[in-house]
Amino acid sequence: MDLTYSPPRRRGLPTPQIVAYAILTLGALAMVTPFIWMVATSFKSPGEILQPRFLPEDPTGDNYTQVLTRTLFPQWYLNSLVAAAISTASVGFFDSLTGYVFSKFEFPGKRIAFILVLATLMVPTEMLVIPWYVMAQQTSLVDTTLGIVFPGLITATGVFLMRQAFKSVPDELLDAARIDGMNEFGIFSTVAWPLVMPSVAAICIFNFLGNWNAYIWPLIVTSKRATMTLPIGLAFFSSEAGSAWNLIMAGATLSTVPLLTVFVFLQRQIIQGVALTGMKS
Questions:
Q1: Could you give phi then psi for residue 153, rounded to 5 degrees?
Q2: End-to-end CA distance of the chain
Q3: Which pTM was predicted?
Q4: Is 257 helix (H, G, I), strand (E, B) or coil?
Q5: What is the pLDDT of residues 212-255, one digit of tens each?
Q6: How many helices (H) and strands (E) does the chain have?
Q7: Domain ranges in the chain?
Q8: 71-277 — its CATH code?
Q9: Residue 24 in 3-state DSSP?
């Protein structure tokens, strides 16, 4: 009797899985390569731009110094941060509050009101910019931070996602808080809201990213250089810089820092929030 131990044979990956990984790897490289080229170009001197070399031979930070000192880039950066922060805070609160009302309260016309909220998603932004601009002009909001952010202070998408999230909160828990004498806003803010924080984080993250990259409306509502947001300022700077790609790439690289920070540190909240908001209809 042969008692020799033979270790189990390790099975390799199935061929379809190998092909899928290969395709995904190629797709990832295709997406990452332009970004790496942008960062590498931002450290090149003007003489290296047209040379057939991917990485800079003699990296320099002078491009960043010129962008930060010779343009209004710091002001554009601040404008974008303030606008995105105000919009994100507003969306996180008002979308949650509205979604809570649609999820946990019964009132006449509730279904119709919710359908009307969702119907606004079918209206293209291009059709709304004219009434938005007329409203901003009549209320003296042109070239102001409030004028940039007011169309996005509450979003239909966020209301829908928060309604779905609040459906997972047990009604018995809210009824117990009412029996204890807590008012409705207290129940929302201290009992229900903390239970759906992953969903709140998800809509806040998506809203911040969307406002940081917003272009059409800020372009229309701002005319002064000092009130422009970063995407608009970069567009004007690119047209003025001409072929100074090293400076353009330096500005573009700086503009991606907040986006990368959000993705690196908050990707878990994004995935968890999206998963939770789609569990119950």
A1: -70, -20
A2: 62
A3: 0.81
A4: helix
A5: 988 999 999 998 888 999 999 888 888 876 778 888 888 888 88
A6: 15, 0
A7: 15-60, 71-277
A8: 1.10.3720.10
A9: helix
